[in-house]
Amino acid sequence: MTASKFTVLFDDPFWIGLFERTDGGRYEVCKVTFGAEPRDYEVYAFLLQNWRRLRFSPGLSAEETAERRVNPKRRQRAIHRMTAETGVGTRAQQALKLQQEQGKQARQTRTRAQREAEEERRFALRQEKRREKHRGH
């Protein structure tokens, strides 16, 4: 079963959009920062233009829930309660945190390699200078 959910909420100081999708028992989430409050047509246009470029978090296992009809007023109260208390669902927070950690690890690996390459370059330069000084006598 494939399900998608989109939520726009105010996360001080910006408006953000949370794209959540469940596909094949995997739950993935993507956070997009809008800045000013987006209008419905702006969100729709953004979704149409950028859907393929969105970077979703690594998939978490999703629990299957039975869909049942809920009273619209009750659903509205539940949504209000959910956004008022936490702002973002805990599964979405976990998925975004996992994506952030993976980006952090990749960045650390990349900077470590750059730092080691720079140290090797400096060492080779020092060795060359030493040889030049020695060669003159």
How would you describe what is shown here?
The chain is an alpha+beta fold and 137 residues long. The chain has one domain. Helix content is 52%, strand content 23%. The chain has three helices and four strands. The longest helix has 46 residues. The chain is elongated and about 95 Å long. The chain starts with a strand and ends with a helix. The model has no long low-confidence stretch (mean pLDDT 82).
**Tally of extended strands?**
4
The end-to-end span amounts to: 80 Å
Helix content percent band:
40-55%
Number of helices: 3
| Strand arrangement in the largest pleated sheet | 1-2-3-4
Estimate the mean pLDDT confidence.
82
Structural class: alpha+beta
Shape: elongated
Strand proportion, as a percent range, falls in 15-25%
Which quaternary structure do these chains form? single chain
Q: Can you write the helix and strand succession as a string?
A: EEEHEHH
Query: How many domain units?
Result: 1
Largest sheet: 4 strands, antiparallel
Low-confidence stretches: none
Radius of gyration, taken over Cα atoms and rounded to an integer in Å: 25 Å
Short summary of the structure?
The protein is α+β, with helices and mostly antiparallel strands and 137 residues long. It has helices spanning 40-50, 72-85, 90-135, and strands at residues 2-11, 14-23, 26-35, 60-61. 52% of the residues lie in helices and 23% in strands.
